[in-house]
Amino acid sequence: MAEFPTIDDDLRGLEAELKRLETEYNMYFSGRLPRPPWETRKRVENLVRQYDRAHIQNYGDRFRFMTLQARFTKLVDLWDRGLRAREEGRPGPFSNRPREQPPAAPATPNDRLVHVTSFHDPLRQLDRLKELYESLAEARRESGQDAVPFHKFAELVKNQVTKLRETGSREVAFRVMLKDGKVSFTARALKAKPDET
Fold first, then answer.
1. Total domains present in the chain
2. Last residue of some domain: 88, 122, 142?
3. If DSSP codes are grouped into helix, strand and coil, which group holds residue 188?
4. Sheet arrangement for strand 112-119
5. 3-state helix/strand/coil string of 41-69
6. Angstrom distance (rounded) from CA 139 to CA 145
7. Which residues are paired to 188 by β-bridges?
8. Could you tell me if residue 116 is inside a domain?
9. What share of the chain is helix, strand, coil (3-state, %, to 5)?
10. Residue 106 belongs to some domain of the structure
11. Residue 77 sits in the same domain as residue 131
12. pTM for the full model?
């Protein structure tokens, strides 16, 4: 008997297509592709539209799709701004990094910033907390690690925010990075005014 693909299979496929599209755009903006990946983008747009119209019963699957959809929307906006800047002959989001930063150690092809967000009260900012958790879980899966249970993750974030807010900061920023194939998850107090550390 033939097996029908499950929603989990479909979402995995969408995630893979989105990663492929992101890679192709990065290659285009770095000059390794002669033109933007319109075919891949159209394919991903059609998949997103198809799942957006479908009724996804499972809350976890629905949340996963909405996270992918939001990521796609953000990336499309970024790519369109980059294309517009390139057409107008001005620096855009994909131009060279600001010169003020000292040259960092050479990055491996997989080094990248995955997600950044900040909290003043994570229990009242559940959407942000879930988005940060999804980014961390995805980065851990990509590096071959198991995802941390959500309740433990939420407790860790809450404790970090409480601890760092005691130093006088209004908000605490969290960053997920992939560096040398490993996941880096850091918290930093955001000061109301610049202080020397």
1. 2
2. 88
3. strand
4. 112-119, 171-179, 182-190
5. HHHHHHHHHHHHHCCCCCHHHHHHHHHHH
6. 8
7. 173
8. yes
9. 55, 15, 35
10. no
11. no
12. 0.46
Q: Is 138 helix (H, G, I), strand (E, B) or coil?
A: helix
C-alpha 83/C-alpha 28 separation (Å) is 10
User: In which domain, by residue range, is 44 found?
Assistant: 7-88
Q: Are residues 32 and 69 in the same domain?
A: yes
Residue 168 is assigned to a structural domain of this protein: yes
* 122 falls within a domain: yes
Count of C-beta atoms within a 10 Å radius of residue 68: 21
Beta bridge partners of 175: 116, 186
Average pLDDT over residues 152-156: 89
Reported as a single tens digit per residue, the pLDDT across 43-89 is 999 999 998 888 888 888 889 999 999 999 999 999 999 888 888 88
Residue 82 token pair: 């980059």
| Coil/strand/helix, residue 131 | helix
CA distance 50 to 46: 6
Q: Which of 113, 102, 133, 134 is nearest to 184 (CA)?
A: 113
